[in-house]
Target: Protein enroled in Amino acid synthesis
Amino acid sequence: MTELKIRKRALVVEEIFHEGGPAPDTPLLRGAAIAVITNPFAGRYEPDIQWFMDDLRPLGLDMAKKLAEALGGAERVEGYGKASLVGSAGELEHGALWHAPGGYAMREVLSGTKAIVPSSKKIGGMGARLDVPVTHVNASYVRSHFDSMEIGLNDAPRSDEMLVALVMTTGPRIHSRSGGLDASAIKGEDGLR
Model:
């Protein structure tokens, strides 16, 4: 076990009024909570890395709480996703350690969500950008909520760091009209439909 070292954090909220068509009654909010942390495995191969997920859990929970609050409260959140960006001295598997702490944190804060939390991860240098996939919190097949948010910071990740992120949205894409399962028709049995 090691002490989690956070260099910086950011909280970003986009307020989307339209995508070229008529403005909805309520703008869509799309937000990201980002943390830049030291990668304790940078520069070497370490066979035993799972313990670091326990170190990440409190950070994930704090990020999820702050992000939900920034979007007007957990009850307003309809979409979510997570991602990690590993600096060049790390490996992709280090980014995979964010899956459980990030995903379970959002599920705890949003209580009762059924759908798997989609994710992305990659290796990148300072200023790299990452697209975070988003799906509906209760049914992955709700096409109107298939979305993404590009995230990144100009000075992260350094080679011995990781950038971890959570993304939440308050509704479907603005002007969604691609068909598929409607959010009002979710059965909520399996996280898919």
Notes: The radius of gyration is 17 Å.
